Please model this.
Amino acid sequence: MPIDPTTLDTDPIRQLVGWLAEAGDAGLPLPNAFALATADDDGMPSVRYVLLNGLDADGLRYFTHRGSRKGRDVAINPWAAAAFWWPTLDRQVRVSGSVRLLSEADSLAYWRTRPRGSQLSATVSGQGQEIGTRDELEARAAELAARSPGELPLPPMWGGYLIVPRTVEFWESRSDRLHDRVEYRRGGDGSWNRRRLQP
Model:
């Protein structure tokens, strides 16, 4: 069914929540995965997939190693773009906006929900840094597991980020390639304006 600005929620976050739920209900793997694009101080872009781990009126939350490429990028260039794609639903959503750090309390709350294996991996990995062999990395994880049988503390270089949306676009394909595109743009007063875009 064609989408139109008037058929979507007036709030893009609520609309995104709805589309995420529909992707989950359709049984798609990792419906909360999105491509995250950042750029360094020279403007060199980089993109990778991460998981959405929180969505509310403030924006989109994800968690990662702060020393990773994406962490270093937003430390000096605090802007990002995100793209969700659900191919079997013929839908995608694009988000762009500023990025800010989440509090240590927010990061710790999410950290405590992670499986122990994920905590071990995040603690021992210098994400994106060169390492000689996989055996070396696995040995680090095994040594930490043996040394720390209880709950692992939040690593100082790991935490959460919030993308504060400035624009959100909902896209749905059509077989004639006249795809439906509806963009929300945040006004100076914080309100959202919707408009149809050409495919």
Observations:
- The domain at 5-62+69-102+161-197 is CATH 2.30.110.10 (Pnp Oxidase; Chain A).
- The radius of gyration is 19 Å.
